[in-house]
Write a structure and sequence with these properties.
This protein is α/β, with parallel strands linked by helices. It is built from three helices and five strands, in the order ββαββαβα. The chain is globular and about 30 Å long. The chain starts with a strand and ends with a helix.
């Protein structure tokens, strides 16, 4: 099964939600599914040492799934979660072509 896992997280991050998302995507792949993780984006804070770390290595998971940055970066709270989810869905469709 193809799974588009859409998560309101920035990678890498020290928050528990990002750990859960990465571990779940890894588990889905290990069970035979094809997963594409769509996130808010990557941590680009240059003052933060965590921003230079590969997310797969940081969370100690195999790179068996794709990570896509939401190209239509929209605040989940300003415009609404539904609109952001719809745009993220189209981002996944576009990336699979």
């Amino acid at each position: 099964m193809n799974i588009a896992y859409i998560a309101n997280v920035t990678l890498p991050s020290k928050v528990a939600g990002s750990v859960h998302v990465m571990k779940m995507c890894h588990a889905f792949c290990k069970n035979g599914h094809k997963v594409t993780l769509v996130t808010r984006g990557f941590n680009t804070n240059q003052d933060n040492d965590i921003s230079r770390i590969d997310p797969y290595k940081y969370y100690d998971v195999d790179p068996v799934f794709k990570i896509k940055q939401n190209l239509f970066h929209i605040s989940f709270f300003k415009i609404g979660m539904l609109l952001s989810l719809i745009k993220s869905f189209f981002c996944v469709l576009k990336s699979n072509k």
